[in-house]
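Forum > Structural Biology > Help requests

Title: Can anyone predict the 3D structure of MerR family transcriptional regulator?

Hi all, first post here. I have the sequence for MerR family transcriptional regulator but no way to get a structure on my laptop. I'd be grateful if someone could post the structure tokens.
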Amino acid sequence: MGDQVRRNMPLFPIGIIKQLTELSARQVRYYEENGLITPARSEGNRRLFSFNDVDRLLEIKSLLERGVNLAGIREIFEMKERGISVPNLHYKTEPSEGDIHKNLKKELYQAGRFGKTSLIQGELSRFFN
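Reply #1:
Sure, ran it for you. Structure tokens for MerR family transcriptional regulator below:
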């Protein structure tokens, strides 16, 4: 039995999927309703998920966390199925402590120089609590 066959075998009920992916059952059903995953069904009509389904759910979760909506996720999956390379998705992350200190120093210098208030006071307020 090949590795790909093993990865496609429907083995996991939704309870295990919830633990593996930290998604709710409702989220998993919603992604199925929207055609993002297609789990197998047992004789009792219960959903059974494969390792590939788990990977796909984790990818959906990751893309959603990075700000991609369901239509975008669907398009990404369609591109992958057609063999089209998907552009790397980069999203701005929270500024590091070093970045904030650098901005603080720059803003304070400029504010003092021109006698005006800092433009990033909201970002800097966490240092003054």
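Helices lie at 3-8, 14-21, 25-33, 51-65, 70-81, 97-114, 121-124. The first helix runs from residue 3 to 8.
Shout if anything looks off.
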